[in-house]
Design a protein that fits this description.
By secondary structure, the chain is mainly β. It is about 5% helix and about 40% strand. It is built from two helices and 34 strands.
Length: about 475
């Protein structure tokens, strides 16, 4: 058996492209694991590969995702990985230099050949690790119930949070069971016509122009509980059973090997500013994990800064819960309006993202700007004169709304009163703060008063304007 430590060994360039599935072997296995397979919340080290170099590769489907249910990742197989990128009418079958594996040999009673083994250490930052995979084979459907039942497993070693240790525990299981995923456990009978065994996980690929395997599983998840911040070891291995032909393979989705780590982001209740504002704009700290938690997940946080908890903003208790069945929650920061000119204040929020890591966010709090409305001075209009009343508004936060005593809601008002009139304008900003001002416009038109009610010929009349 040949073993390669792939921290400095570079694979030769090999690439296969048929249809939309593109398989490539450029780079090193260590690079593929670190840069393609690994997602958020885990750190990976000590990557090794044991087996024939042609049995491991990276893949992508481009714009057309075929029927796989994944667009890119790694392939671990019992033959030549580049042959997987072919129509189902082609035949992926290669005898390799890969040998047996004791863990696979413990799963079945038949000889293991062409084994391909990928191993690495990892440190999770949360209490759950999962990754997405698909198992496919040329043994489907003809040899579904025979001794030529190719086998694979994902074996975990490390601390079991329920007590004791995981020691090469297989986590490639049918969902919700302790049954290993295999050809015998997922198939539609010897000729694809039944009887059906877990057919909800079975995909007939016999007419596909993209992937050579005659059938494969639906996308499945390997999920297991861990103790955050401790080192674990995983061994991913696949082998031919009984013979060294009719290849099988496992697709591992890119960035899916991850733990349920916490990600932070901020927003505000109004779009007026990116910061919180006393009595107006609350800050919302959104806390998200990559996938839904099956139980309540309690997170701890602490605050510091020159803004005082419970004085400058509504008291924050220091814990927040992501409820079971959800993948997010939020912390609402509500600044208290105190009428004191304090200038810009800030809160430093420290959130424990795991038992060994934390993340920080800075939230700024601004004073609420005093809203003022000033109308022009009282004015006299004569005859048919008109006046546009244009207010001068200072402070507050846009947009403003306008309410005139006339019922108008425009930002200015055209005045042409026939009598002396008082106009009142109320201004309201987005913070629902309001203020008002008034203007009196006097009617300055002269009034004619006639003394007496008649004038005779050659008499004189007196007319007074008041």
């Amino acid at each position: 058996m040949i073993k390669y430590i792939l921290t400095s060994f570079f694979l030769l360039f090999l690439i296969s492209s048929k249809g939309q599935l593109v398989v490539s072997q450029t780079g090193t296995v260590a690079q593929w694991v670190q840069n393609i397979l690994t997602g958020t919340g885990v750190s990976v080290s000590n990557v090794t590969y044991t087996g024939d170099l042609q049995s491991i590769a990276k893949f992508t489907t481009g714009a057309n995702a075929t029927t796989l249910g994944m667009t890119d990742g790694l392939i671990l197989c019992t033959g030549n990985a580049t042959q997987v990128a072919g129509a189902a009418s082609t035949f992926a079958s290669t005898s390799t230099s890969g040998g047996s594996d004791p863990l696979l040999a413990n799963l079945i009673t038949f000889t293991i050949n062409d084994a391909a083994i990928l191993e690495f250490d990892f440190v999770p930052l949360s209490d759950t690790v999962k990754f997405k995979y698909i198992f496919g084979s040329e043994e489907y459907p003809e040899f579904s119930l025979s001794s030529f039942n190719d086998v694979f497993g994902f074996f975990i070693s490390g601390y079991n949070p329920s007590g004791g240790m995981y020691t090469n525990q297989n986590v490639a299981l049918l969902p919700g069971t302790s049954t290993a995923v295999s050809i015998a456990n997922i198939n539609n009978g010897t000729w694809g016509t039944g009887p059906c065994v877990n057919c909800s996980y079975y995909v007939n690929n016999s007419a596909s122009p993209y992937v050579a395997y005659d059938a494969y599983t639906t996308p499945l998840y390997a999920t297991f509980l861990v103790v955050p911040c401790f080192t674990y070891h995983i061994k991913l291995v696949i082998g031919d059973a009984s013979d060294a032909i009719f290849d099988s393979g496992v697709f591992l989705e890119a960035n899916s090997f991850s733990s349920n780590t916490v990600n932070l982001s901020t927003t505000t209740t109004n779009s007026i500013d990116t910061m919180a504002i006393e009595g107006c704009n609350n800050a919302i700290v959104r806390i998200q994990i990559p996938y839904i938690t099956p139980v309540d997940k309690v997170l701890y946080y602490a605050t510091s800064g020159d803004a005082i908890n419970g004085v400058d903003y509504v008291y924050l208790p220091g814990t927040v819960t992501i409820p079971a069945g959800s993948d997010s929650t939020s912390i609402l920061i509500e600044p208290i309006i105190d009428g004191i000119n304090e200038g810009l204040e800030y809160i430093e929020l420290f959130v424990a993202t795991s038992s060994c890591t934390y993340d920080t966010l800075t939230i700024y709090i601004a004073d609420n700007k005093t809203l003022e409305c000033n109308l022009p001075s009282d004015t006299v209009l004569c005859n048919s004169d008109t006046m546009t009343i244009n207010p001068n508004i200072v402070g507050g936060y846009l947009p403003y709304s306008y309410t005139w005593s006339t019922g108008d809601t425009t930002s200015t008002l055209l005045s042409d009163p026939s009598i002396t009139t008082t106009y009142t304008l109320t201004i309201t900003d987005i913070c629902n703060t309001d203020t008002f001002d008034q203007i009196i416009i006097y009617d300055g038109s002269p009034q004619i008063v006639i003394i007496g009610d008649s004038v005779c010929s050659n008499d004189t009349a007196h007319i007074s304007a008041v």
